[in-house]
Specification:
The structure is a homodimer.
Chain A (H helix, E strand, L loop, with lengths): L11 H10 L1 E6 L4 E3 L7 E7 L1 E7 L5 E8 L3 E2 L12 E4 L3 E7 H10 L1 H21 L5 H18 L6 E3 L4 H7 L4 H13 L3 E4 L2 E4 L2 H8 L18
Antiparallel strand pairs in A: 1-8, 2-7, 3-6, 3-8, 4-5, 4-7, 9-11, 10-11
Helix pairs in contact in A: 2-3, 4-7, 5-6
The first copy, chain A, binds a DNA duplex (30 and 30 nucleotides) through helix 6.
Chain lengths: ~230, ~230
DNA sequence: TCCCCCGATTGACCTGCGTCAATTCTGGAC
DNA sequence: GTCCAGAATTGACGCAGGTCAATCGGGGGA
């Protein structure tokens, strides 16, 4: 297979064992669901290409976008504990994924110590990111932090980090950041006036990455803006 | 030891193995820190008695309360991936915890399959809860959902779920829910006027649990309000 | 017992962002 | 090419909740 593109840092042998249990699923076309809230939880999914959004519908019928997932990222971790998927996952564009059937994955985690460590790490990172998303920040900080984070994630995939095509509409960005669509639109306009980005619909060019990082510094969605750790001991 | 009070559903033998690696730490007095952001990540902590809050300080110096942890709950999961604690943990009252040194825990997870499954489950549940916290709801929904959740958690511990003593000040509740202290205070007053609760400082009596659940229904912090799953397929 | 300090409450006012509404843009369908 | 439905933008306005400020209250220390 050779195409499970998760950055797990496993050696070749372990990676092959992991790939032996996955099966590719796709293409999933834009708007099609990978899974839905309440479905039996059967597998985790690694995005190979394209992108997904995850969301929930609350008891009032309102949609809440939990996150966006591009290539190399994992989806479905929140479904483990209850045995049911806790959110919906829908393709934002033509997308293909690798399914990692959970019972077999659990078995493999047990057999491959390196995999155990990586899975714990991935889940922990997801938790940190979600915690960050739950914090309280202004609309400006949120959008700047979101763009900076997205830019880094694209760059990590080898795509140009300063010239991106957003896979999602404004409405989804807004929902994800707990803003109104109009607020997102106005902020894009403001960032553009300030010379920080050039935006045309879903094409975004980041003209002043430093300014974007500064604006979004306190809303660091993936702990990646500064590689600097915080080495203070008490 | 016999006092690691985590509801992991392990058999006696496995539980004993787990307890053999923990060591009790406490009492931690109110205001003392269990760990701080940036510290080397060394252990997970299970709260035995008392309570903790976890929080971060952002680059502007603002505090964000991530969560509260009472007996039987686990703290520190977000520190795994980076090897450094990602938040601060401070006691809200006299508190004692069990430290689970992570390297030994990892080893034990490998050896005890039942423990592996439980750890994955616990992390997944944390993730679901954090995702929920990140969603967009009115102040009223947030506070009602928070109180309902807290009530359930107390009840799970065998404490009266309708008569609770809040271990945290208004300011921390407000920060956790992304509200102003004054808003929390006003909402308590309103809930009291509506006959839903009786509040006196930190003493809260829930007079109308159903009303509280209804108000907070769409902001379900621990998936516990309704045991009903969502069995729809597709 | 009396302070004293800090947490909580309450009121008045303000503002960031949401809501509503009107255009404009645009990429597919044909 | 033309049409059109949905996406994005822009403006006017309103409100939920934040901010500022004054007061209250109660537990702990001497």
């Amino acid at each position: 297979m050779r195409d499970l593109c998760l950055p797990l840092g496993l050696d070749n042998d372990d990676m092959e064992r992991l790939e032996s249990i996955v099966h590719t699923r796709g293409p999933i076309r834009s708007g099609e669901h990978l899974f839905r809230e309440g479905d039996n939880f059967q597998a985790l999914y690694a995005v190979k290409s394209g992108s997904l959004k995850t969301y929930t519908i609350d008891k009032q019928g309102r949609e809440h976008v939990l996150g966006f997932h591009i290539g190399g990222e994992l989806v479905g971790l929140d479904g483990i504990h209850s045995g049911h998927n806790r959110c919906n996952a829908v393709a934002l564009q033509t997308t293909s994924v690798c399914a990692l059937p959970f019972p077999r994955l659990e078995q493999l985690i047990h057999e491959v110590p390196g995999l155990q460590a990586q899975v714990l790490r991935v889940m922990s990172r997801e938790l940190t990111a979600s915690n960050q998303l739950a914090t309280d920040h202004s609309a400006e900080e949120r959008l700047a932090g979101f763009l900076a984070s997205l830019s880094r994630r694209f760059a990590r995939r080898g795509l140009p980090g300063t010239r991106l095509t957003l896979p999602m509409p404004r409405r989804d960005i807004a929902s994800h950041l707990r803003l109104a669509t109009e607020t997102v639109s106005r902020l894009f306009a403001r960032f553009q006036d300030d010379g920080i980005v050039a935006v045309r619909r879903r094409e975004v060019e980041i003209l002043d990455p430093a300014a974007l990082e500064t604006l979004g510094a306190s809303f660091d969605l993936d702990g990646g803006s500064a590689r600097q750790r915080n080495p203070q001991q008490r």
